[in-house]
Write a structure and sequence with these properties.
The chain is of the alpha+beta class. The chain has one domain: START domain (Alpha-D-Glucose-1,6-Bisphosphate, Chain A, domain 4, 2-Layer Sandwich), CATH 3.30.530. The protein has two helices and seven strands. The chain is globular. The N and C termini lie far apart (42 Å).
Length: 152
């Protein structure tokens, strides 16, 4: 497996409670995140969503897609969500939100390893492209979230 530590920062002109609500709603991601092709609820967790399991299929800028199972491990409203990731990538993800004026700053951390054979074999050559692709996906997500919240 090839490991990747990927950190993204988003700035959204919306109150933290509203941003958290939208990010927490994984089933709603396709409405604002262009590369999220499909979300299926696999298992319902507790009232806060801890233990929720979703299968999420992502399209990418390059010609492949990834399907991940996301299990929500930690919910601390309105500032933190932790996810366990399995499938085409294995590892964990964390959303950290903080207020800045009337806006919300998000740090999104992915600490993942590839599980597909072709990705592992090609990682020495394609690793920079995988990182670039992740950057595009995250930038599109930030813009989509900002647009959706601006409409509300």
């Amino acid at each position: 497996m090839s490991r990747y530590d990927l950190v993204s920062h988003w700035h959204v002109e919306a109150p933290i409670d509203r941003v958290f609500q939208v990010v927490h709603d994984v089933e709603g991601w396709p409405r604002w995140w262009p590369q999220v092709r499909q979300v299926v609820l696999v298992e319902r967790g507790d009232a806060d969503g801890v233990g929720d399991v979703h299968s999420v299929t992502w399209g990418t800028t390059v010609p492949y897609q990834l399907t991940l199972t996301l299990k929500r491990m930690v919910v601390q409203r309105p500032w933190r969500l932790d996810l366990l990731l399995e499938g085409d990538l294995h590892g964990n993800g964390r959303w950290l939100l903080r207020e800045q004026g009337g806006a919300t700053v998000i740090q999104h951390d992915w600490h993942v390893a590839t599980t597909r054979t072709w990705m592992n074999v090609m990682s020495p050559v394609l690793g920079p492209m995988f990182r670039w692709n992740h950057g595009i996906l995250m930038a599109d997500g930030a813009r989509g979230l900002a647009r959706m919240l601006a409409r509300d």
